[in-house]
Amino acid sequence: MCGPCGCTYWEDTDAGGVVFYANYLKFFERARTEWLRSLGIEQQALADEAGVVFIVRSTAVDYHCPRPSGRLA
Question: Are 18 and 66 in contact (CB under 8 A)?
Fold first, then answer.
């Protein structure tokens, strides 16, 4: 199901129907891409034209609440 914060697909969830913890990092990457697009910045063009790419050096995540499959974010 899709909402303002993206879609939750069956393959994003674990056997309990809750988003698998590591998939939140993929959601963050998608959100960053969409944010840049909203600013008129395409990451591939930025890499091709300016040689600039984004690299995640480290990350830390605190999980506060599970996101069940099919729930709007």
Answer: yes
Quickly count: other Cβ atoms within 10 Å of residue 35's Cβ.
10
Of the candidates 12, 14, 48, 62, the residue annotated as catalytic is 14
Tokens of 29: 């990457």
Catalytic, 14? Answer yes
Q: Could you tell me the domains of the chain? A: 1-73 (3.10.129.10)
Q: What is the largest CA-CA distance in the chain?
A: 44
Q: Where are the alpha helices (DSSP H) in 1-73?
A: 23-38, 43-50
Q: What is the pLDDT along the chain (73 residues), one digit of tens a residue?
A: 455 556 778 888 888 888 888 888 888 898 899 999 999 999 999 999 999 998 889 999 888 887 776 654 4
